[in-house]
Amino acid sequence: LLASQVHLKSDAPTGDILLDETLRHIKATEPAETVQTWIELLTGETWNPFKLQYQLRNVRERIAKSLVEKGILTTEKQNFLLFDMTTHPVSNAAEKQRLLKRLQEGVLERWAGDPHRMDRRTLALLVLAHSSDVLENAFSSLTDDRYEAAMNRTKEVLDADPEVEAAKSRGTEMIWAILAAFNK
């Protein structure tokens, strides 16, 4: 799965600057790159001089700026002893709660016992929360028994073999490939 090449299905603009830039890079790449390589390029985790033209610049800052423009985050200067640092605290708690609720309901109320019956966006959210190391925080507001159930179900999904799971279901191969790349 990690050696699978990323092939573009459509280069139609999405309306998101970063996504559209990513699509242009993927389209222009010959030969096609692997999922692992694209994750490294698009997060700035590689210093390959031959691939610099495919790297997205200032990804974190651009994502933060976009979220500020959408009213989800704000921008503040915070003083850390000797220097000031720009931070981006959440300003729209309702949006954060909506995402938390979606994730919690996906592994509790709407749990079907099979990751293939999960909504693709919820599965992607679960993988992204895991990869960002914020999954435990997403469930911290739950009661002890619901927290335990959510973590057990999440562990079941995240411990599944991405190779096997990707082969089982059409449409979620990329999500499983991303999980495999971050679990590597």
From TrEMBL:
Q: Which gene encodes it?
A: Golph3l
Asked if the Swiss-Prot or TrEMBL record annotates the protein with the keyword Iron-sulfur, the reply is no
Task: Tell me the keywords, alphabetical order.
Answer: Golgi apparatus, Lipid-binding, Membrane
Q: Family per UniProt?
A: Belongs to the GOLPH3/VPS74 family.
GO-annotated biological processes: Golgi organization; Golgi to plasma membrane protein transport; Golgi vesicle budding; retrograde vesicle-mediated transport, Golgi to endoplasmic reticulum
What GO annotations for molecular function exist for this entry? phosphatidylinositol-4-phosphate binding
State the GO CC annotations: cytosol; Golgi cisterna membrane; Golgi membrane; trans-Golgi network
Q: Does the keyword Membrane apply?
A: yes
What membrane topology term does the record carry? Peripheral membrane protein
Show the Gene3D superfamilies listed in the entry: yeast vps74-n-term truncation variant domain like
**Pfam families annotated for this entry?**
GPP34
| Compartment annotation | Golgi apparatus, Golgi stack membrane; Golgi apparatus, trans-Golgi network membrane
Q: What is this protein called?
A: GLP3L protein
